[in-house]
C-alpha cells in the first residue's frame, strides 16, 4: 500500500465529494490507464475501491469521486468525513474495466456516479481521435457530478445528458441510443446494478454480441428474499488440507478469517473482484456480478465474499 494524504476536497455535486490524493513528499504516483481503480484503506480500517475519475495531468496525484450512500456500511460516509491533510493508504491502480479496443467506435453510458471511470475512457478516446458517444444519465443536474466540467471540456460535443427529473432533458431512450450503434461499436456501461442490467438486456434483444458488452457494477443487484437458499457446506484448503464448515448466513471469507486464513475483501458483495480465488475441486454457486458468464460456467474461480458451493464441499487454491 502507498501512504498518501488528502491534498484537496471538492464538492462536485449533491452528496458527491472529489478527493485529490498525493504523497506527503510529492513523489510521483504509479501511472494508470482508463477504467482503473484504487483500493483505499480508510481511517476506520475499512478497505474500499473507487474508480480514478481523471487521467493524470500531474503524476503526483490521484483523484476519486465518491457518492455518500444513504445505506453506507461505513465506506462512503468515512470518505465524506476526510479533510485536507488526513492520511490514508491506497493500492497501486488496478484495472478490471479497461478499454479493450481504444481505436474502435465506442458507446459510453453512465448511470449516476458510474460516470467516474467513463470520464477517463472519454479522455483516452478523445486523445486518440476515436469516434465515440457518451450518454450520462442521472436524476438531475444537481446530483450529477462533473456536469459543468464535461459541458466545457474538449469532448463536450460527444456527450448527451439525460436527467430523469428535468423536463427539458428526461430519461434516455435506451432502445434508440443502442439502435444507433448496433454495428461496429463496443459498449462500456457503469452505474447502478438495475440500470446496467436493463441496458444490457435491451442491447442483447437488439442483437448486440456479448463480446462487445462491457460493464462495471458499483453494487450487486438486489435479489428478492428467499430466492437464494443458504445451506452449509465444507470449504477445504488445497495447500494444507484443512477443512472448515461454512454455515447458513456465513460467507467463505468470514469463516476463513476466523480460522486465521486471510483473503483481501473490499465490497463484500461480489462486485469488485478483490477476493477472487481459484477453485481446485467442487462446483461454485456464483452470486457475484464480477465474473463473466463464461468464467462462471468454467467453475475455476469464486468470490468467497458472497458465493457458496453447490456441492457438499469445495476446495480452494489457497
Describe the structure.
With 318 residues, this protein is of the alpha/beta class. It is 19% helix and 29% strand. The strands form four sheets. The protein has a six-stranded antiparallel sheet with strand order 4-3-6-1-2-5, with helices on one face. The chain has a five-stranded parallel sheet with strand order 9-8-7-10-11, sandwiched between helices. Strands 13-12-18-14-16 form a five-stranded mixed sheet. It is built from seven helices and 18 strands. The two termini are 22 Å apart. The protein folds into three domains: 89 residues, Elongation Factor Tu (Ef-tu), domain 3 (Beta Barrel); 112 residues, Nucleotide-binding domain of ferredoxin-NADP reductase (FNR) module (Rossmann fold, 3-Layer(aba) Sandwich); 84 residues, Ubiquitin-like (UB roll), CATH 3.10.20. The longest helix has 14 residues. This is Vanillate O-demethylase ferredoxin subunit. Keywords: 2Fe-2S, Flavoprotein, Iron, Iron-sulfur, Metal-binding, Methyltransferase, Oxidoreductase, Transferase, Ubiquinone. Its EC number is 1.14.13.-.
Count of beta strands: 18
Class from secondary-structure proportions: alpha/beta
What is the assigned CATH homologous superfamily of the largest domain? Nucleotide-binding domain of ferredoxin-NADP reductase (FNR) module
The strand line-up of the biggest sheet is 4-3-6-1-2-5
Give the CA-based shape. Answer: globular
How many distinct helices?
7
Share of helix, binned? 10-25%
Query: How many separate domains make up the residues?
Result: 3
What order do the helices and strands follow? EEEEEHEEHEHEHEHEEEHEEHEEE
If you average the pLDDT, what whole number results? 91
The CATH architecture designation of the largest domain is: 3-Layer(aba) Sandwich
* Biggest sheet record: 6 strands, antiparallel
CATH topology of the largest domain: Rossmann fold
CATH top level label of the largest domain: Alpha Beta
The separation of the N and C termini measures 22 Å
Amino acid at each position: 500500500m502507498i501512504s498518501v494524504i488528502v491534498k484537496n476536497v471538492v464538492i462536485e455535486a449533491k452528496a458527491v465529494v472529489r478527493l485529490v490524493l498525493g504523497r506527503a513528499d510529492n513523489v510521483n504516483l504509479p501511472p494508470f490507464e482508463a477504467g482503473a481503480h484504487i483500493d483505499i484503506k480508510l481511517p476506520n480500517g475499512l478497505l474500499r475501491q473507487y474508480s480514478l475519475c481523471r487521467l493524470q495531468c500531474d503524476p503526483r496525484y490521484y483523484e476519486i469521486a465518491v457518492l455518500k450512500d444513504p445505506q453506507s456500511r461505513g465506506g462512503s460516509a468515512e470518505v465524506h468525513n476526510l479533510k485536507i491533510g488526513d492520511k490514508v493508504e491506497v493500492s497501486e491502480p488496478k484495472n478490471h474495466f479497461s478499454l479493450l479496443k481504444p481505436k474502435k467506435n465506442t458507446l459510453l453510458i453512465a448511470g449516476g456516479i458510474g460516470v467516474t471511470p467513463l470520464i477517463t475512457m472519454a479522455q483516452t478516446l478523445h486523445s486518440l481521435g476515436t469516434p465515440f458517444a457518451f450518454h450520462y444519465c442521472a436524476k438531475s443536474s444537481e446530483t450529477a457530478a462533473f456536469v459543468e466540467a464535461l459541458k466545457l471540456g474538449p469532448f463536450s460535443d460527444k456527450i448527451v445528458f439525460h436527467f430523469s427529473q428535468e423536463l427539458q432533458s428526461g430519461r434516455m431512450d435506451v432502445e434508440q441510443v443502442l439502435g444507433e450503434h448496433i454495428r461496429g461499436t463496443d459498449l462500456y456501461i457503469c452505474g447502478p446494478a438495475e440500470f446496467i442490467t436493463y441496458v444490457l438486456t435491451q442491447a442483447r434483444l437488439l442483437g448486440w454480441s456479448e463480446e462487445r458488452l462491457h460493464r462495471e457494477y458499483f453494487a450487486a443487484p438486489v435479489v428478492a428474499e428467499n430466492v437464494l437458499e443458504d445451506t452449509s457446506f465444507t470449504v477445504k484448503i488445497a495447500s494444507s488440507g484443512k477443512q472448515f464448515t461454512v454455515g447458513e448466513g456465513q460467507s467463505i471469507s468470514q469463516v476463513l478469517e476466523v480460522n486465521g486464513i486471510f483473503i483481501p475483501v473490499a465490497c463484500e458483495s461480489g462486485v469488485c473482484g478483490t477476493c477472487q480465488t481459484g477453485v481446485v475441486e467442487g462446483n461454485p454457486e456464483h452470486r457475484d456480478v464480477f465474473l463473466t458468464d463464461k468464467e462462471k460456467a468454467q467453475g475455476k474461480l469464486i468470490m468467497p465474499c458472497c458465493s457458496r458451493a453447490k456441492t457438499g464441499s469445495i476446495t480452494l487454491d489457497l
